[in-house]
Amino acid sequence: MTGDNHGSAWWSDALRDPWRDPGTPTRLVTQSPVPPPPEAPTAPPPARGARLSLVVVVAAVSALFAGTLGGALGFVAASRSGAAAQTVLGRATASAPALAQRPPDSLAGVINRVMPSVVTVHAEAGQGENLGSGFVISSDGYVLTNDHVLGDAGSDGIRLTFSDDRSAAARVVGREPESDLAVLKVERADLNPVELADSDAVAVGDPVLAIGSPFALTGTVTYGIVSALDRTIEGNDGAGTTRYYAAIQTDAAVNHGNSGGPLFDVNGRVIGINSMIKSLSSSSDESGNIGLAFAIPMNQASRIAGEIIDFGKARRTVIGANLQTSYRGSGGGVRLADVDEGGPAAKAGLRSGDVITKLGDHPIQTPTDLIALVRRYDPGTVISVTYRRDGASASTQVTLVADAN
């Protein structure tokens, strides 16, 4: 083996390597004791600023520990005394004003004002009880509701429940089945009559409130808008009475038990009487609100109610002609089967065979349209009638009258 390091292994640490050169003679090597490690140098004392920082840190840690310990001890003490703090959710806000502090023209203020005027009507009919709604129309005890709410109940089988949960017996003053209206009388001194609106001033889109007792849930309030005006509907009570409505349509939720109750504007004035709904089910037990409800306009209802109170019955407004119900003209309209001699239609120049196509601004498509719209007006109203005769269109003015019944 040649090299600069002749006589020693060419790899490092050859004496301790088991794979060293086998020709190297064996030597016993005694390892000297390992001296103890030198003493770690002592750090120099901190400067004055460092000492102050250390004091602050120690103080902060001590304060944190003391606060934690104090809180823990306080919680334990409160828990033992039954006054443990509870978790607070949400954020603090100003409390809502009490009802008495709500603006009187707010919805809550209006509802609070008119609610005492609304009643629940219980009418014993046959083996059961009809339940509907009504509202006070005079301070001396007259209450307006739907005729169909009473059914075949007798005058001594009617009871009213007010918003203060007090009940009182009521008697029937009079009924007008074809207009679906009835007037009741109750003896109570502290009544709050409603304020009546001019229903002719109502417009599509006006907000409205329906209040009543749907499914016996008294004092229920629903909110919506006027969806349509003069929606003509024909209904039948199952006992042979046909009812006609030129109704205010609304999407406020109305269900069984709302019948006879008021439809208010947002000022708390009654614009109509909730009377009918359109439902997806033909069963009266399964039908319910789908956003199509209909109310008798208040102008028509108040006239009929006044006549019932004053005369015991109400007059019906007529045009003085019979209609041909089977007529189906390509241009729509209703054909006059015959005209009463000396009646409103005859005086206006209308004849048998004429086809009425419009009453005022309302198109006429069916006999229901003409009957319902004529009854909407007061007797004595002068209204424009558009008609066809021998293919030509013409118009005339008709003065509507009350029937002779």
Automatic annotation (TrEMBL):
Transmembrane regions listed in the UniProt entry: 54-78
Region annotated Disordered, chain positions: 1-46
Domain of life: Bacteria
Ranges for domain PDZ: 308-389
Pro residues composition-biased segments: 33-46
A UniProt-annotated Pfam family: PDZ_2
PROSITE patterns documented for this protein: PDZ
Keyword field: Hydrolase, Membrane, Protease, Transmembrane, Transmembrane helix
InterPro entries, alphabetized: Chloro_Bact_Ser_Proteases (IPR051201), PDZ (IPR001478), PDZ_sf (IPR036034), Peptidase_S1_PA (IPR009003), Peptidase_S1C (IPR001940)
Official protein name in the record: PDZ domain-containing protein
